[in-house]
Amino acid sequence: LRPLFKPSQLSRVKASKLDELQTAPPGKLATDDQIMELLRSERTFERGFRLLMNQYRERLYWHIRRLVLVHEDADDVLQNTFIKVYRGILQFEGKSKLYTWLYRIATNEALSHLQSSARNSAASIDDESASLVGRLQADSWFDGDAVQLQLQKAIAQLPEKQRIVFNLRYYEEMPYEEMASMLDTSAGALKASFHHAVKKVEALFKET
Amino acid sequence: MKEHDLADDELKALSPLLRDQKRKGDGLQLPPDYFDRMEAEILNKTVGKAADRNTARSVAPPLQARTRNLWVRRTATAAAAALALLLAAWWFFKPQTAAVEAEALAVSAQTPSDEEIEIYVLENLQDFETEQLAVLQPAAGFGAVLPLQDETTAPKPDEASKSELKPEDLERLLDDMSDEELEEIL
Fold first, then answer.
1. With an 8 Å Cβ cutoff, is A1 touching chain B?
2. What's the pTM?
3. Distance CA B122, CA B113 (A)
């Protein structure tokens, strides 16, 4: 599982800077650059990976959870996401922001999970959303009321990509520009997609 | 905070109903200490596994390394065998050629010259039969020995019979010989 280090990637970081990062308290937020510096050295890789998880675990969890809804599924998807990050972090070239890259992996993992669940149950999209909400209702880690459940049901009926855009903006309040770099779409198109999604969810929510 | 305000204003304009619903929360909960346990589990699956694998590697080489070693060994064996074959071939051909050349030189060195043959014949004339002496060309006398006759140059039976000395020729030959030479022959 351990990523392979290229010789050129080994220990290019100044020792003093690494020591500073290594001795920093775990709760202290590190920048993406600092995390990447730690990850590029074999000696400090583990520390860098711990920092990365610490920094992004909650944001990624909630992003995944709102797509798959059930905690158990979200846990599986999040673990797979971090394992993929662990394996592929040295291939990250820094062309996009680290969290954009992480979100992309998490989104792909969540969608793969949903698709595989749908294949296993051989259900239509409507049945799929109903099944998802049914599982949420049975989830011991959901204590919402009927209205909150109805909102989740309405969101679950959105098409896949629109649901991602809706969640990123509605719950996570992600700027459109960041969403655009993550989803490889223009900010304008995402804004239009969000507006459509809001109207659709509102209509479905009012129906019930 | 700025993005939060922007998003809130946007939602307020789009759907006040959803904005209010958002403030009430979504009802999704988490097990206590979930993130710490999840992090430990992932580290166990990634960093821990890598550490285990590194330990295992020090005890027994992985299949890939063993296969690689096997290929290296096979390549080395093949190279050694090829080198041995080349050396054997060189040894087989090169010294043999030299030996043949040396032998030929030795034979050519041992082959007596015409002059040596003449001296030898004259010194050992009594050991030769008359027929053998008759083979000598009369015109050339004892100073010339007939070349060795191979199949192509050998006279045909009738030619051979023609070349045999007749009694009168032998008589003439004996007349031409000096007394010393006759004494030596007898």
1. yes
2. 0.60
3. 14
